[in-house]
Each structure stands twice: as C-alpha cells, then as structure tokens.
Amino acid sequence: MSNTSLAASEVIHTISFPADREQIILVRSEFPVKAPVTELRMPNWTPGSYLIREFAANVNRISAASADGAALSLGKISKDRWQVNTGETDTVVVDYEVFTPDLNVSTSWASQAFALINGASVFLYTPQTSELPQRLSIVSDAGRGESFTAMAPALDGDGFRSENYDELVDNPVAVAKAPVYRFTYEAQDYALLNVGENEFWDGEQAARDVEKIVAETQSFWGINPLKKTYWFMNFIVGGKGGLEHDHSTVIMTGRRQMRNRNDYIKWLGVVAHEFFHVWNVRNMRPVGLAQYDYQNEQYTSQLWLAEGLTSYYDNLLLSRAGLITPKEFMELLAKDIHRLETTPGRLLRPVAEASLDAWIRHYQPNANSVNSTISYYTKGAVIGFVLDTYIRKASKGRRSLDDVMRKMYELYSNEPYSHDAFETVVADMGGAGAGALLRSLLTTTTDPDVDTAFDYYGLELTRGAILVTGEPDEEPLISALGVLWEEDNPGLIVKAVLRGTGGSSAGLIPGDEILAIGNERLTRDKFDSLMASFSPGEQTTLLVSRRDRIIELNIILDVAIPDHFEIVLKSGFGKRDITRLERFLGQDPRQ
Ligand SMILES: [Zn+2]
C-alpha cells in the first residue's frame, strides 16, 4: 500500500505476471492528483522506433480507485486517453493489464521464461505527473529470474527509481535467469546480459568483443557522457535489430547467430551501432526529437545523420577495433552501395524527405516502397563514405568526417541541433565544397559518387554483370523479369515490380504467381537455368495466376540486376593508397 506523503512526490508503478496466463503484464500505477479530474495517457510510440504502434490497443481491464480503495469512475475519451473522476482523493490507483503480442526490441514481452519491459508500451502517465520521479517495483517469482536494468535502484532499496517518465521509458527492464558479463573500460562500467544464452553462444568471447567495440567508440568520441553502468541487453531468442537508450540497448539475435561468421559480424554491427547512438541521437539530438511527445509523430529530416551515419560508423569502428578485416569491411560497404543503386525509389525521393516519411514509409513498407523511397540507413551510410572521403581528399588527409562528428558533439551535446547545423560544421571543417556536396546529396536524387571516392584509395567498385558459369565473354547475361519475389514461399510470387523494367511494362503486379515462361513451366528450382536460356531484350510470354485467374502477358526481358558488387584494387595500387586506407580503416589493408 502506498504511503500518502510519499505518493504526493512520486508515481509508483508495480508490475506482476499472472501465473495462469502468458503474454500478460499486470500493472498498478499510483498517481498523486490535485484536480478533481485526471487524464491518463498511453504512449503511441517509443523513441528510436518511428512508428505509431497504438500501445493503448493492448491495455485491458482498466479500473481506478482512491488510495483507500474506493472505486472511481473512469472512462475512455480517445484511443489513447482515459479520464478519471478523482474528486477529493489525492492519489489515484489505476489497475490494468497489458497484453504483449510481439517479441521485439521496441515492445514488451511476458512469458514464464523471461520478460522484457519497454516502458512506453506498459506504463500510463498523466500530464501533471510525468516530471515526477517514477518508482518501479517488479513482483516476479523465482522461476522467471532477476530484474536487470540500467534504471537506478530506489534509495530505500525497494525497486527502481527514475527521475521522470522519460527516464522510465528510456530504461528497459529484462526479467530473466541469465548470465551477466561485466567489464570496466576507462573507469566506466559495462554489463552484457545474455538472455537465452545457449550452447551455440560463447558469452565470454562476445563480452571480449563488446569490450573492443566500447574501447574503439569511446576513443572515437574522446568524451564519455555515461553516468552509470551501461547495459547491453542481448536477447538470444530469435528476432533481430536493436534499440538505443541513454544507458542501455536492447538487442535481439538468433540462437545460432554466433556460429556463422557473417551472422556474428551482423550482431557485432548492431552492438557498435547501438553504442554509437549514445552520442549520436541520445546525447546529440536533432531539434525535431528534442522533447518527446509520446502521443504524436515527431518529424525530422535528419535520420540520415542520426541513423545513416551511425550505420556508416558501426562497421567502420568494427574494422578499427580489429573485429573485422578490411576485406570484410569493403564487402559490407559494397553491399550498402548495391542496395542503394538497385533501389529505383532512390530516384524519386531525396533522403531528407525519406527521413521525414519514416513513420509512413520506412516503418510501414509496402509493395511499392522499392520504387518510391530509399532507406535513410543505407543511403546515409553511403553518403557518410562519400563525404568522409571528400573531406579527407580536400584537406590532404588532415581532416575527416570523424572530426565533423566530434565537432558536432562538442557544439550540440547539450542543445538540439537545427536543420542546417551539420552542413555548417561540414563546410567549416571540410570547406565550402564539402558543404555544397552534402546539400546536394541530401536534397537531390543524384547518386552519391562512390567511384570517385574509391579512386582516392586506389580502389574500384565493379558492378559485375550477372553471368552464368564459364568464360564471361562467351556466356549470355541472365535476363530478368524485373521483380522481387516473396521470400519463404515455394511458389514464384511477385512481391514487388521494379519501376522501369520489362516486368513493369508487361503489367505484372504484386501478388502475381508466375507459372510459366515461353510455355515452359517455371519453378524456383528451374528459375536460373531457364532464365539463362533467354537473352536480355528477347520477347516472350508469361503465364500468370492473378487472384486465381490464369492470364498471359507479353514481356521484353531485362538484363538481370547483379547479385552483388565488388571492391577491387585498381592497377597501380600502391604505398600511398595503403597509407590512406590504413588511416581510414585503422589497420593495414593488406591483411
Ligand atoms: Zn539506429
């Protein structure tokens, strides 16, 4: 029961889990009140993930009472708000349950095995109490395990305490039986929590690698804003991705992800990405995200910087930390360029606009996304490479994008940066030409000139044509339909039709199942060999099942999009290039 004098100065949230139902979190929240009517709100989104998730849709069985247990009338007034007639009471006690349908880094999950609490999806707030300290108590049986969080323990030892609602939301909690690997780097404490660690996951090795990422990132920024233990909360339970917080990150990964080199590099990349965010987006923030409004979308045209440049640096810091080879770094960079240059939508929407549209495009992709937009992660990373190289070249190797990032942090770690702040710093550090280049990369759809950038390092990008096995000059190019296929489907079902291709002109639409080409039965198994027997530019017919009706379409076949790009040494690659690459990648490129 709450103590009235305490209740006047803090909000108390208590969560528990019913023994007989999975995916349910029971919440009791006690709010001090002063007015006779109080409005309760449930967030619609959580910072770092720019999607309206309508968390109120999972709130059920809500009721309100005064501190002495007398029921108070409560009614819903909009999709995300409730009104309580609090009358004379000075504390309103609200009970409700939260259903947790999805296991991902941005929402909550409750099961017998473990729980993940992301505050925005669980806790109500009132506008009058969101600046008050928030106490959190977790009632859990021993079977589920301990509570882990970067949130500070309450002063009296009872649960955890946040300074305000923002901090409650920013400190996810894991309830689990899980090993913790602790280390200290330059007087700063870190912990890696491995929920779901199994025989395929080497926790000690992962912790050593995380420590290398921490060391490299701290030395990159040269300044450390952390005030308490930083938690890498790693859920080895399937799923993917990560979400950044001030003093922690939630990461999800597959159970066997550490056993495959490329998959493990992906995990290391997520770790580096989320940790880089401590500086870039948590402490140094665009003006559009300065103060969180949990009910409404918040717009910024600078996710190419907050996310895209973070994506550029995550892999780069892995190289500088010696966790990946220069060759592996170049493969990852080539992959980003391939994704960019094979996405027709890059020609329609500048990356600054793609950022503003994150809420309705990046987080809600549809069959036409590939034609209508470009990922600010992918294009932002490629812009990072081109801009970085431009500054290195223009300053004769004296400066780089690293200096721009550090200058930005120096200027904007305490106040949000405006729309043109980055461009100004780029022009200051890299010259007017660098500023103009950046502006054009952000506001036009002209492709970033990666070829000139590679040339600076004595490298070359080959956008290899797709060839079937054999001598390149003798074999035909594989011709293509200009479509993307639905994954995890045994049939050849069109997921998207690329703009400007033969498939588009032929009239293919998403959902079409291709049954035959040129009167030959077409299946996944036979696709490559059958397509190789056609030449680009050749006209043929497709037999298509569209909403269960069989139709025939005429198609002029395209040249297939290359599977991947490759970065190779240019002739004359020499000592000067090695020096440049060494400064860029932090290691000798010849290894
Ligand atoms: Zn990110």
Number of helices: 16
Main sheet summary: 8 strands, mixed
Contiguous runs where pLDDT drops below 50 for at least 5 residues: 1-7
Radius of gyration: 27 Å
| Helix amount | 25-40%
The tally of strands reads: 30
Task: Provide the residue-averaged pLDDT.
Answer: 95
Instruction: List the strand order in the largest sheet.
Output: 5-4-8-2-1-11-14-13
* Protein structure class: alpha+beta
**Beta-strand level of the residues, as a percent range?**
15-25%
Coarse morphology: globular
Cα separation of the termini = 64 Å
Structure description:
With 591 residues, the protein is an alpha+beta fold. It is built from 16 helices and 30 strands. An eight-stranded mixed sheet has the order 5-4-8-2-1-11-14-13. A five-stranded mixed sheet has the order 16-17-18-20-19, covered by helices on one side. A four-stranded antiparallel sheet has the order 9-10-15-12, with no helix packed on it. The chain starts with a helix and ends in a 6-residue tail after the last helix. The protein binds zinc ion. Zinc ion binds next to α5.
Short key terms for the protein model shown above:
591 residues, globular, 30 strands, binds zinc ion, eight-stranded mixed beta sheet, disordered N terminus, five-stranded mixed beta sheet, single chain, alpha+beta
Quick structural summary:
The protein has 591 residues and is an alpha+beta fold. 29% of the residues lie in helices and 24% in strands. The protein has 16 helices and 30 strands.
